[in-house]
Here is the input.
Amino acid sequence: MNRYLFTSESVTEGHPDKICDRISDTILDKAIEEDPNSKMAVEATIKDNFILIYGEANTKANLNYVEIAKEVLKDIGYPDEFSVLVKISKQSNEIENAVERNQICAGDQGIMFGYATNETEEYMPSAILFANRLSKRLAEVRKQGEIIGILPDGKTQVTVEYLDGALKRVDTIIIACQHVANIDKKYLEKEMIDKVIKKVIPSHMIDSDTKILINTSGSFVKGGPFADSGTTGRKIVCDTYGGAAAIGGGALSSKDPTKVDRTGAYYARYVCKNVVSHGYADKCLLQVSYAIGQEKPISIFLDTFGTNKVSYEEILKYINENFSFQVENMIKELNLLRPIYAQVSCYGHFGRDDLNLPWEKIKN
Here is the structure.
């Protein structure tokens, strides 16, 4: 028997990097809401009570970057007064001319990956699915007042055990949750187990040997941007498949749909999920690559890790007959020119059954 462990981590929306992802994608949403043809690549960096918002924007939208950032921070749970510096220029004419041709073309070169596995109902690897849900639950119990004394910053980590390739059990659960000073540790541990872990991890996945580790540093009072710096796009493993599959060369957050780092990754996930859901394979990985100014991909690579039920030729035939990686088609088919991005800036861009995401749909 082949027994092995695999681990993925996630972070809460109060983590400094995720604050920046949320700011960037909220800016994108507000731009697209007013001007669907906005070309955006606006990022953020945060440290202490200082935020730098910077990048490129070609949009007709009237955006108050300072107020957007402050509203995001208050919604997450940071009531502090923040100073915001904005440094934004127009997108390069060379990039704009490459994108806007007879058809919409790729706004950059790069590689993107999609992945799906049938080990969970969401077609996601279990470790990252559980880790993201634990992080999301941490925010819920804090905002709803179910656990008193916890603060916005936090991390989760889940280790699962496989036996002969099949998910067997959860081996270890780690939660690091920011809290007020002098909180009772036993109270915090009990609340985390009862109101977070047991609400997320299926009971049959936890046994007497499962290790649960809560705030192993002993204390986590200072957190968020006051304990660490943050920048847009630094949590792409949390955003995607938790390390269980390859990731592309660029981040997802902040980028408008002409940026194939984002759209190519979404569409590749869409195709992989459909390949697996239709029974062609138990696992599916797709790599696509693009060149700036080109409307079609340079290459497409398929891997089923030996789990395919039919030949690769038959799977590729299904993909070619039902999907098109042409940039304009991906944007239209997934209806991406609308404000749907801030909602996926934390807790994962994939496997989100709590959201009606177009790249998670299954074709008949």
